[in-house]
Amino acid sequence: MTTTSTRQDVDPGTRKHPVEARRQQISDLLGKQPPHAIEAEAAVLGSMLLDPRMIGEVVQIITGPEDFYSDRHAAIYQACVGLYDAGDDFDIVHLNQSLRDAGLLEQVGGVDYLIELSQSVPSPTSAPYYASLVRDKALVRRLVDAGGQILHDAFNKSGSVDELLDAAEQAIFQIADKKIGAEASDLGGLLQELYSRLEAMEGQGLTGLETGYFELDDITSGLQNGEMIIIAARPSMGKTALALNMAEHVGVVTGQPVAVFSLEMSRHQLAQRLLCSRGKVDSHKLRRNMLGPDEYARLAAEVGKLKDAPIHIDDSPGLTLLQLRAKARRLVARHDIKLVVVDYLQLMSFPGAESRQVEVSQLSKGIKALARELGVPVICLSQLNRGPEAREGHKPRMSDLRESGSIEQDADVVMMLHREEYYHNEPEWADENPDMVGLAELIIVKQRNGPTGTIKMQFDGTTTRFNNHTPAHNAPMQAVQT
Questions:
Q1: Which of 40, 51, 92, 102 has the greatest CB tally within 10 Å of its CB?
Q2: Residues 6+ apart with CB under 8 A from 190
């Protein structure tokens, strides 16, 4: 079969690529045609005509007719998939009639070209290989298109540099996302993988990252890879402190790399909070430069431990989901990050969302997808609405999650932090309820793969530190030795 590298059009007035003119301009500038594999496209179609079962293999690789460089090949592919999807009988006769009914038969080369395609491959079994070639060339062409769009915007748009960068990054990531999910796995292979992990973890009490809070680790078996963990609370309840305490334990005690994305506090504030919490020093005294010799000594000792801890802090304000994904991917690639902390969800933005509810919903889904993509636990902090304040006992509920019910759907674990002391500033209450002073409850209202329950902790407001409630557990947290 004779094929050429010239773009073959079905109808110039119905071209599928809106950036075709820009692509051609770039091709003229470089003196080259866009990357393509006409012979591979023909081989894919020929394999599908020879054995219709190959269509089911091909559609898992090729994302759509736009992956074809030749417009007539795209039209033939679309007709093939249409017949296959409808469950109709599939052969050259039916394909010929389908193209004729659509008014495309003569434009794709007539029945003679269909016969030529079917005779172009000796065996249809190589269809997945040819389809991969077609897909890869299509991805490279999309990169060319994205590059052309970036050049066009850079020269012609008057928006801010941040907007141009965001649009450029989004264009590139959309290409990376243009793919079909992983293939289905057979149960036998999954069970073998699970058993191998169980053997590797024999004798260990946890299957995930330990937090240093023994009751929490006992219920959750640690922070699990690929899970989105929500820590929700009213403002100033201590959710940032709790997340930092967990990040500190993972980074300092277990030595695992951690990434903290803070949209609320600066990196310097977080560093100061980590140091005071670790050194058990009143942060207010540090800010006022009223530390005594013993406190200076404790801070000096902890500085040495913290400076070598693999904790990476990003305090970019107004972080978008796209930026979070890009930064997290980069940190995982460079530092092998094992835990991501985001503080907090409602401060992120999702440009183009039609409402705040839709925006939060998209952010929630995106963070969940990021956890699965990176294969690490992602702790995401979230604000609660004012529901607990009007409720007797002030205990938070799942329905108190602010602005979107999709958070509870997307999250694998939802924890709600409650301190009754938060609602009582009067000294009389503290005198009447001494057992409630400093008491914190971490209420696990959802755990997709485990039990729910309430964990008691002790909160030290001067050092912004949560400790294990059981006195014997309040010694400095140590990693579990195996």
A1: 40
A2: none
Exposure string of 30-40, with b = 16+ CB inside 10 Å and e = fewer, is eeeebebbbeb
Rounded Cα distance, 315 and 324, in Å: 11
What local confidence, expressed as pLDDT, does residue 379 receive? 93
Are residues 125 and 212 located together in one domain of the fold?
Answer: no
Catalytic position from the list 116, 264, 295, 441 = 264
Whether 478 shows a pLDDT value over 60: the answer reads no
Residues 352 and 204 in one domain: yes
Domain boundaries, position 297:
198-473
Spatial distance between the Cα atoms of 263 and 449, rounded to a whole number of angstroms: 30
Domain end (from 176, 209, 233): 176
Residue 420 is among the residues annotated as catalytic for this protein: no
pLDDT digits (tens, 9 = 90+) for 132-159: 888 888 888 888 888 888 887 888 777 6
Please state the separation of Cα 244 from the chain's center in Å: 21
Tell me the pLDDT tens digit for each residue of 198-216.
Answer: 666 666 666 788 888 988 9
For residue range 320-338, what is the model confidence (pLDDT) as tens digits? 887 788 788 888 888 899 9
Question: Is the same domain home to 209 and 119?
Answer: no
Joined tokens for residue 285: 């005294």
Q: From the CB of residue 199, how many other CB atoms can be counted at a distance below 10 Å? A: 8
| pLDDT value at 377 more than 90 | yes
53 and 140: one domain? yes
Same domain, 224 and 167: no
